[in-house]
Amino acid sequence: MLIVGELINSSRKPIKAAIDAQDTEEIQKIAKDQHDHGADFIDVNAGTFVGKESEYMQWLIKTVQESVSSPCCIDSPDPKVVETALSVHQGTPMVNSISLEKARYEALLPVIAGTDIKVIALCMSDKGMPETKDDRVAIAEDLINSLVKNNVPIENIYVDPLVQPISTNDSYGMEFMDAIEAIMTGFPGVHTICGLSNISYGLPERKLINQAFVVMAIAKKLDSAIINPLDKRMMANIIAAETLAGKDEYCSNYLTAYREERLKL
Amino acid sequence: MLIVGELINSSRKPIKAAIDAQDTEEIQKIAKDQHDHGADFIDVNAGTFVGKESEYMQWLIKTVQESVSSPCCIDSPDPKVVETALSVHQGTPMVNSISLEKARYEALLPVIAGTDIKVIALCMSDKGMPETKDDRVAIAEDLINSLVKNNVPIENIYVDPLVQPISTNDSYGMEFMDAIEAIMTGFPGVHTICGLSNISYGLPERKLINQAFVVMAIAKKLDSAIINPLDKRMMANIIAAETLAGKDEYCSNYLTAYREERLKL
Questions:
Q1: CA distance B136 to chain A (A)
Q2: ipTM of the modeled complex
Q3: What is the CATH number of the domain that holds B133?
Q4: pLDDT, tens digit (0-9, with 9 covering 90-100), for B16-68
Q5: Number of domains in chain B
Q6: Which of chain B's residues have a Cβ under 8 Å away from the Cβ of A166?
Q7: For residues B214 and B222, is the Cβ–Cβ distance under 8 A?
């Protein structure tokens, strides 16, 4: 499972404050904590700073990369912000995200075409959010085919079918999970990814829902997630689920996690 | 989710002791605890008492039924024991279990044919334990077709594809889960059930594995389980997973469980 650590996001109050104060130590501590708990990429988002997003994004990337070896996941819907972010990033980042929305797609495609950059492909089009599995798979198909045609290797594409809250429609959980399975089965080599927390919006005990959801999605072949790696039970659930999904030869990853007390909850 | 409470099993030391001592109070306490925590059926097993299994099974059923309204799940591989158990059971029980093993099948079939009894159909034949999804589905198909032909309504059949330990083969989790999905999709009206704990045999932190496994199996359409209903996190996971699987209109079961503090872990 590829883990993107979600914590360095300016929509979270302590992060907004740390960015405002240019608090290098605080940002580096959170980056290091996430890295040490298993994050493969560190998401960086400065989206709440209108007019200063590019500047702060560059600062975040430099700050994070001074402290950890994990590359960043550059999280902005604005292709211009992504481009300036890429100019300071060392190594191969992930970009969060491209979509089928025409303006976003056309502006971001030249930035990633022919590179090694990993890209999250949101199942969103100018028609809005998809409702059903079939809507999601149709958008995914267009995105994958078009990206591959433009020299983005399929192995670098992380399709996010977009989670919607189960509290607004009973079927949103299965529509999402069935989309994951259809995309993973239908496009060999592609990855799937998602931010989880939207699924539990409007319900109590959200962690319980989020933790169960990631485990169910792994049963349906999800292979990447944008999560809080400091949530010990979430990480333990992912390790157990991957073992059960047959992705852990001789249960060796599970047993290593046990010895390192990462399963002690 | 139909829940069979697994605790009253003579292979567990305190239960063996309580049966030995004919300790009515202890058995009734465990029956009531399981009922109060959501068990739809109370499993009763006296299998360790060779020569006395029938007598003790009858005592267990009478003892349990004096204290709770949940019917019993009569748990014995011996058709004679099942038959004497049925003679004292009030209401409609579940029988655990029939299989495709010839002797067992032929002896138990006349006992359940044409009745309202619910029956667990183990995916086991005289060739032994199935290894793959396809082996399981083939046995399930034979069992379902034959039972239905003999006037066992498909709605009363609970297919158990048999869990084998993930520690012995990386693929055993997915072979089981894919069998669940194929059976539920291929035979509308049938149910699937399983005892979970075998999946984690030989591994540490077995509860973590068992809890993740049931959630994954629900994503693959499992609709019944033989578990310990006193395991609060297991029950909370099941409630969350069923909500996410679209089986909880308006999340009302989840919200009720929350109000009753059953999600407080």
A1: 18
A2: 0.94
A3: 3.20.20.20
A4: 999 999 999 999 999 999 999 999 999 999 999 999 999 999 999 999 999 99
A5: 1
A6: 243-244, 251
A7: yes
